[in-house]
């Protein structure tokens, strides 16, 4: 699908962009070796790929969401079990295998290739590239299979999921506090990278295969057969939002979110779960990097992850949906921005909660500035580059490259200055100006956009 | 009501519409006929300011849709062929959503009228994604006429409708035109054009091959189908 939309080259170059970034990033390893030891960088990379697995899994594999939205209404494949002699379990397993191959080829392989290509300049053993490929793939699959398992529990019973999640969380926190488990034990792919022995490899495979197999065996699919009826909630909701302008558009966005498949599960899996993972990683990171303020760094990353809310808001819309009505594209965009601002109350709540529970209230204000600015800036870049189609357009190599170039330097710089002094995170407010500029340009750019249609 | 002059649209190297000129007068039901991919949808999109023409010009109800697309779309009603109403609004909520965009009053009465006329009152609180294709088409029909436009542009008007509803829609369109309204439809279903259109245009490969009253054709004793096929096949062989 992506190669059809972007052309073969546009999509084929996507892994090349990843490889180039990994290559350039790897070149900086010796420069920052004093601040970031190699094993800390390795831990971060494994956590990143674990997070990617979680996000890929949560985006695509949420039981009903998985079958109904991703394939069900998008294609006839999910309905194959109705019209063809193929079981739902087999379809689920096939898509799990397909996602595994797809994302490993698209992300992990080029990343490892870029890292390997840099080894002559970094003085690292080129074989580490091969090892990184295996361990990062394992980290990705660990995240993917864990979310698959949790989402299968979710489709069986929300209470079962909540209970399992609570038990796991309490056990993990208790074990961490007691020092009973180490990072390597929690993240066996990372342990395998540090020490390529059979034990961590076996543990990693066990932690991947058991949840993945269980999720395939117990998968349940609720096809959207039932007709869902609702009283008119658009007007009352729009009435309450009247003061914001574009009230009916914002109300529509809210109803899209509330009524679409996944519901609360979407928030848990694709937002709160990755954030929890980020928070845990930061708690580990502060042991290695003195001076780092976890709340400020969390706020920066929260800003980036919050921009994925824009993906939710645009999931059910396209410009062509409004092209036959007397509506400017810029009006639709403005409404999305307002919906986005309102939806950002959720990550704001997370930030407040993190500040309150971590005892880091002293850096709350710079953290708040960092969160708000980064969220606005990342949104502006996303909107400028992808319009109302971030879920599709970010896979275009050229678009993705520009996205990375626009976001990464700003983030890295912000994190670095915040290590010097957390108060410097307030400098993130400087991002507001380019954000406003990009939003203005984006409105004009997408106003002039047209899609061929005969 | 519609005046198209040398309208042309290129998509890269492909010419979707090639120097097409025609006019539609008030109180007329004009049908643009053509095979799939002949440029019918592109024509409607240009006339309603959804896309700018590469060359040529148009006026719709006195408005240049390139200069004032919102003004043009505000006056007319449009039923696109491929668009469906938003998945997670109910049928009623969608009409209310359109009414809010068009700043309409008496929304309850307008909604009731269309739910009654197209016989889907029992579906008004159903999510659009759970509606049948035919009911979605009814809803798209309702949104286009909600503001009682003087001109409607409809891409494949009877698609997905059952025979009973097709009759209802055809009768409505005839009444609408007799009441002073104007309709521009694009279709590849010749029976529709033969039955309800006053005048037709036949488009193929982006070029308008014929334009004239249906009754002239009937007077010659020829069926529209044979006339259409001869014209299109002749053009394809040329």
Furnish the topology, listing elements before pairings.
The complex is a heterodimer of chains A (454) and B (238).
Chain A: H1 2-6, H2 8-27, H3 38-60, H4 64-72, H5 80-83, H6 88-122, H7 127-156, H8 158-178, H9 183-186, H10 188-194, H11 198-217, H12 234-240, H13 247-259, H14 264-288, H15 294-306, H16 308-314, H17 329-343, H18 345-358, H19 364-386, H20 390-393, H21 397-420, H22 432-447
Helix pairs in contact in A: 2-6, 2-21, 3-7, 3-10, 3-14, 6-7, 7-8, 7-10, 7-11, 10-11, 12-13, 13-17, 14-15, 15-18, 15-19, 15-21, 16-17, 17-22, 18-19, 19-21, 19-22
Chain B: E1 2-11, E2 14-24, E3 29-33, H1 40-47, E4 55-60, H2 69-75, E5 77-79, H3 91-101, H4 107-117, H5 133-145, E6 151-155, H6 163-178, E7 182-187, H7 190-196, E8 199-204, E9 207-213, H8 214-219, H9 224-237
Parallel strand pairs in B: 3-7, 3-8, 5-6, 6-7
Antiparallel strand pairs in B: 1-2, 1-4, 8-9
Helix pairs in contact in B: 3-5
Please characterize this protein's 3D structure:
The complex is a heterodimer of chains A (454) and B (238). Chain A is mainly alpha-helical and 454 residues long. Chain A folds into two domains: 1-224, no CATH class; 291-449, no CATH class. Helix content of chain A is 75%, strand content 0%. In chain A, helix 10 runs antiparallel to helix 11 (198-217), helix 13 (247-259) packs across helix 17 and helix 15 packs antiparallel against helix 21 (397-420). The radius of gyration of chain A is 22 Å and the shape is globular. Chain A starts with a helix and ends in a 7-residue tail after the last helix. Mean pLDDT of chain A is 82; it is low at 61-78. By secondary structure, chain B is α/β, with parallel strands linked by helices. Chain B has a domain at 1-76 and 151-156 and 180-238: Rossmann fold (3-Layer(aba) Sandwich). Chain B is 39% helix and 25% strand. Chain B has nine helices and nine strands. In chain B, helix 3 runs parallel beside helix 5 (133-145). The longest helix of chain B is centred in the last third of the chain and has 16 residues, at 163-178. Chain B is globular, with a radius of gyration of 18 Å. The relative contact order of chain B is 0.18. The mean pLDDT of chain B is 90. Classes of the chains: A mainly alpha (454), B alpha/beta (238). The A-B interface holds A 73, 224, 226-235, 238, 247-248, 252, 255-256, 258-260, 316-317, 320-321, 323-328, 450, 452-454 and B 11, 16, 37-39, 41-42, 45, 48, 50-52, 70-71, 73-74, 78-80, 82-83, 86-90, 92-93, 96-98, 100-102, 125-127, 129-130, 144.
């Amino acid at each position: 699908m992506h190669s059809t939309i972007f052309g073969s080259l546009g999509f084929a170059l996507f892994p090349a962009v990843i490889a180039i970034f990994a290559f350039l990033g790897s070149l900086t390893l010796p420069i920052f070796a004093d601040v970031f030891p190699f094993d800390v960088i390795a831990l971060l990379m494994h956590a990143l790929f674990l997070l990617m697995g979680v996000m890929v899994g949560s985006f695509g594999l949420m039981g009903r969401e998985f079958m109904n939205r991703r394939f069900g209404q998008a294609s006839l494949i999910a309905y194959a079990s109705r019209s063809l002699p193929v079981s739902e379990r087999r379809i689920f397993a096939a898509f799990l295998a397909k996602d595994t191959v797809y994302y490993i080829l698209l992300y992990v392989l080029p990343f490892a290739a870029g890292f390997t290509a840099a080894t002559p300049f970094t003085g690292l053993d080129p074989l580490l590239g091969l090892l990184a490929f295996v361990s990062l793939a394992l980290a990705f699959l660990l995240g993917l299979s864990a979310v698959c398992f949790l989402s299968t529990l979710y489709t069986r019973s929300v209470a079962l999921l909540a209970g399992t999640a609570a038990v796991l969380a309490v056990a993990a926190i208790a074990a961490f506090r007691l020092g009973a488990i180490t990072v390597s034990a929690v993240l066996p792919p990372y342990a395998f990278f540090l020490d390529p022995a059979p034990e961590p490899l076996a543990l990693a495979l066990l932690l991947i295969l058991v949840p993945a197999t269980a999720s395939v065996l117990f998968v349940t699919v609720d096809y959207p057969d039932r007709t869902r009826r609702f009283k008119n909630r658009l007007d009352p909701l729009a009435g309450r939002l009247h003061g914001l302008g574009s009230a009916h558009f914002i109300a529509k966005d809210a109803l899209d979110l509330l009524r679409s498949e996944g519901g609360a599960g979407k928030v848990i899996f694709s937002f709160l779960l990755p954030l929890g993972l980020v928070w845990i990683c930061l708690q580990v990171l502060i042991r290695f990097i003195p001076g780092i303020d976890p709340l400020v760094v969390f706020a920066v990353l929260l800003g980036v992850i919050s921009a994925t809310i824009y993906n939710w808001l645009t999931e059910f819309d396209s410009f062509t949906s409004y092209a036959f009505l007397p509506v400017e594209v810029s009006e639709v965009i403005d409404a999305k921005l307002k919906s986005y601002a309102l939806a950002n109350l959720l990550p704001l709540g997370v930030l407040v909660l993190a500040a309150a529970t971590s005892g880091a209230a002293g850096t709350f204000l710079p953290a708040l500035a960092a969160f708000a600015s980064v969220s606005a800036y990342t949104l502006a870049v996303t909107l400028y580059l992808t319009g109302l189609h971030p879920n599709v357009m970010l896979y275009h190599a050229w678009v993705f490259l520009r996205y990375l170039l626009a976001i990464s330097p700003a983030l890295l710089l912000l994190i670095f200055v915040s290590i010097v002094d957390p108060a410097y995170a307030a400098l993130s407010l400087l991002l507001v100006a380019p954000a406003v500029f990009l939003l203005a340009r984006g409105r004009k750019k997408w106003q002039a956009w047209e899609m061929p249609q005969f | 009501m519609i005046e198209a002059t040398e309208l042309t649209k290129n998509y890269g190297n492909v010419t979707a519409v090639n120097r097409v000129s025609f006019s539609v007068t008030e109180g007329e039901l004009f049908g643009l006929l053509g095979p799939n991919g002949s440029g019918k949808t592109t024509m409607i999109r240009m006339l309603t300011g959804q896309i700018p023409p590469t060359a040529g010009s148009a006026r719709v109800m006195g408005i240049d849709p390139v200069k004032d697309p919102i003004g043009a779309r505000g006056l007319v009603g449009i039923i696109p062929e491929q668009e469906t109403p938003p998945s997670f609004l109910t049928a009623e909520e969608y009409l209310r959503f359109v009414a809010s965009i068009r700043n309409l009053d008496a929304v309850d009465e307008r909604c009731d009228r269309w739910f009654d006329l197209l016989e889907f009152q029992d579906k008004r609180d159903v999510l659009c994604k759970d509606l049948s294709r035919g009911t979605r088409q009814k809803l798209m029909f309702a949104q286009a006429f909600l503001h009682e436009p003087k001109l409607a542009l409809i891409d494949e008007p009877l698609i997905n409708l059952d025979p009973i509803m097709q009759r209802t829609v055809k009768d409505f369109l005839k009444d609408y035109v007799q009441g002073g309204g104007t309709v521009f439809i694009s279709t590849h279903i010749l029976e529709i054009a033969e039955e309800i259109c006053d005048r037709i245009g036949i488009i193929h490969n982006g070029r308008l091959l014929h334009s004239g009253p249906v009754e002239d054709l009937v007077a010659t004793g020829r069926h529209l189908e044979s006339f259409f096929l001869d014209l299109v096949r002749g053009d394809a062989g040329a």
